[in-house]
Amino acid sequence: MSEKNEFPTVSTGEGVTRRVLSHNEELMTVEFAFKKDGVGELHNHPHIQSTFVKEGIFAFSVDGKEQRLEAGDSIIIPGNAVHGCTALEDGILIDTFTPRRDDFL
Asked: What are the tens digits of pLDDT across the range 13-64?
């Protein structure tokens, strides 16, 4: 179990930062903050991911399917699905991963 503010905020690209909020071996919660036009590059990983849009509007791509998500929306991204997003305005995403993303530690 991790403690509050154990992990620093790190840049993951222009206009995008990541901060691990909590984790154990089975689950991880991470906050991603985006400036308008910030991009979460297309990528994939074996983890199942749940994304909740806390603030803002995002254009998401999941395995080639495009969709727009706004504050209050959420999505489940299957393991190994190619996905990414672009912030259409400043926003915050809360992602959970199972199992934990050890590459974020």
From this structure: 999 999 999 999 999 999 999 999 999 999 999 999 999 999 999 999 999 9
Q: Looking at the 3D structure of the chain, how many domains does it have?
A: 1
Instruction: In whole angstroms, give the CA distance from residue 10 to residue 58.
Output: 20
Instruction: Establish if 3 belongs to a structural domain.
Output: no
State whether the Cα torsion 105-76-87-22 is positive or negative: negative
The tally of CA atoms less than 13 A away on the side-chain side of residue 51 is: 26
The pTM score is 0.93
Q: Residue 78 belongs to a domain with what CATH number?
A: 2.60.120.10
**Cis previous bond, 99, omega within 30:** yes
As a whole number of angstroms, the distance between CA 48 and CA 81 comes to 9
